[in-house]
Design goal:
With about 425 residues, the chain is α/β, with parallel strands linked by helices. The chain is about 50% helix and about 10% strand. A hairpin with a 6-residue loop joins strand 3 and strand 4.
Length: about 425
C-alpha cells in the first residue's frame, strides 16, 4: 500500500473523532468523555452538592461565605461522587461561576478585594475596596442616594471621642494571616463588641504591619496582640515573624524590619486542640524543611504536621469561625474598653460642650428648614455655578460652589436687615 493510501485510510477512520474534538474546542457539544466513558463530572453533581454546602458554610444564610470556605465545605462531597479531588482554582473560576450563572441563587459569596474605588468630592475620603461585599454595599448606598430628602441631614457635632489611639479607641489588636474574613467579622460585629483593631495580610506580614505592631503592642505601654493563622508550618512561621526576627534573617543579613520593643503577643491558633474540637477537615501537603528553633508549635503539633497534613482557617464554616474567635477573645478580653481617668475627664468635658452645641443646633434647624423651603430659587442658578467654577477651577465641586452661593445670599440678607434697622434707614 502506498503512503498516500495509508494517509487517506487513517484520515477516513479518524474523521469523526477529529470533528468531535473541533466541536469541543468551540464549546458546541459536551466533552468526548461522555461519548466513551461513564465518568462522573463535577458539573454533573454540582446542583446536588452546592446548595447544601452553602447552607452549611453560611449557617443557613446567617453569614457571608468566602469562595475558599465554600470549597472546603463541598470538596469531600465532590470526591465521594466523582472519585476525584476538586482543585480550588477550577472550583472558584469555573465550576462555581457556571453554577451561579445557570441557577442564579441569591448567595452572599465573597472574594478578596482587588483594587480600590475612590469617589471624589464627597466632603470626606470615600475609598471602597473592590471586593464583592464592599462594592455591593457601595452600590446600595449609591442607589439610596439618588432620591435624597434635601432636609434629611444631621448637623450635630460628632459625639465620639475624636481619637484613634490604642487604649482610647481599641483595647487590643487582632491579626489574621489572610484576608477574606472581613465580611464575616463585620456581620458578627467582632471589632465593635470586643473593642479590637483588626489587621490582615496575605501570608507573611509586611514591614508596615510589623512597624504598627512594634509601636502599638509593645510590652509596658501598649495593647495586647492576638494572632490568628492556619494550622500548618507556614502559619506558625507567620505568627512568629510578626513579632520576632528569625535567626536565618540575622545570619544571612535579610532583616526587613528590626523590632525596637518586646511585643505583648498571644497566639490564638489554629492549634491542634482547635482542629480536634471542631473536627476540621485536613488536607494533604508536602512538608518541607523543619521548624524554627523558636517555633511556638508543640512537639505533638510538629509531629502532626510532619505527617503531611494541614488545616486552613477556611475549613471553618462561618458560624464556627465566629463562635471560635468569640470564645478566644472573651477569654482574654472579658470587659469592654474604658480608657484611663485623664482621658475620661477630658472626654466628659468635651461631651458637655458637644451636648450643649447639639441642643442649640437642633433648636435652630427647624427655623432654618422653614426659611429654606420658603426661599426663592435664583432663575440663573446654573449659570452662576458654572461661572464660579470657570473663574475658580479649584473652588470645589458643584455642591460646594452651590453652598457658597447660598451662604452669600443669607449673609447679604442679614446685612440688609441690619441696615434697615438703623435709625433713619429706609425700611
Amino acid at each position: 500500500m502506498k503512503g498516500m493510501d495509508i494517509a487517506n485510510a487513517v484520515k477516513g477512520a479518524t474523521a469523526k473523532w477529529a470533528k468531535m474534538r473541533k466541536a469541543e474546542y468551540r464549546g458546541s457539544r459536551r466533552p468526548r468523555g461522555y461519548v466513551y466513558s461513564e465518568r462522573v463530572y463535577f458539573s454533573d453533581v454540582a446542583a446536588d452538592i452546592l446548595p447544601d454546602a452553602y447552607a452549611h458554610a453560611s449557617g443557613n444564610r446567617r453569614y457571608s461565605v468566602s469562595k475558599r470556605q465554600l470549597h472546603y465545605a463541598c470538596r469531600d462531597a465532590f470526591h465521594k461522587r466523582t472519585g476525584r479531588t476538586l482543585e480550588y482554582p477550577y472550583f472558584a473560576n469555573t465550576l462555581l461561576v457556571q453554577y451561579m450563572n445557570r441557577h442564579g441563587p441569591d448567595w452572599h459569596i465573597t472574594a478578596d478585594p482587588r483594587g480600590t474605588l475612590e469617589v471624589p468630592n464627597a466632603g470626606h475620603k470615600v475609598s471602597v475596596p473592590c471586593g464583592t461585599i464592599e462594592i455591593r454595599r457601595h452600590l446600595a448606598r449609591a442607589r439610596a442616594g439618588k432620591s435624597v430628602d434635601p432636609f434629611d441631614f444631621d448637623p450635630r457635632v460628632d459625639v465620639e471621642w475624636p481619637s484613634i489611639a490604642a487604649g482610647q479607641r481599641y483595647q487590643a489588636v487582632l491579626y489574621i494571616e489572610k484576608e477574606g474574613f472581613g465580611p464575616i467579622m463585620e456581620e458578627a460585629r467582632i471589632a465593635d463588641r470586643f473593642d479590637v483593631a483588626v489587621v490582615s495580610n496575605k501570608g507573611q506580614s509586611n514591614v508596615a504591619t510589623r512597624q504598627f505592631v512594634d509601636e502599638v503592642c509593645k510590652v509596658n505601654g501598649g495593647v495586647p496582640l492576638f494572632v490568628v493563622h492556619d494550622f500548618d508550618k507556614a502559619g506558625f512561621e507567620i505568627a512568629q515573624r510578626l513579632t520576632q526576627v528569625s535567626d536565618w534573617a540575622i545570619e544571612y543579613d535579610r532583616i526587613t524590619y528590626d523590632f525596637n520593643n518586646e511585643i505583648n503577643v498571644t497566639d490564638l491558633g489554629l492549634r491542634l486542640g482547635d482542629v480536634e474540637q471542631y473536627d476540621l477537615a485536613t488536607e494533604a501537603c508536602d512538608f518541607k524543611g523543619g521548624f524554627a528553633a523558636d517555633s511556638i508549635a508543640t512537639e505533638e503539633e510538629r509531629e502532626f504536621l510532619r505527617g503531611g497534613e494541614r488545616v486552613e482557617l477556611n475549613a471553618f464554616t462561618s458560624p464556627q469561625f465566629v463562635e471560635w474567635i468569640e470564645a478566644k477573645l472573651a477569654e482574654h478580653l472579658p470587659k469592654r474598653l474604658i480608657p484611663d481617668d485623664d482621658v475620661l475627664t477630658n472626654a466628659y468635658r468635651r461631651a458637655m460642650a458637644v451636648a450643649e452645641v447639639n441642643l442649640a443646633i437642633e433648636q435652630a434647624k427647624d427655623a432654618a428648614v422653614e426659611n429654606a423651603k420658603a426661599a426663592e430659587i435664583p432663575s440663573n442658578l446654573r449659570r452662576k455655578i458654572a461661572a464660579e467654577m470657570e473663574a475658580a477651577p479649584d473652588s470645589g465641586a458643584w455642591d460646594r460652589v452651590l453652598y457658597d452661593l447660598a451662604r452669600e445670599h443669607i449673609e447679604d440678607g442679614d446685612e440688609d436687615e441690619d441696615e434697615s434697622a438703623e435709625p433713619g434707614g429706609e425700611a
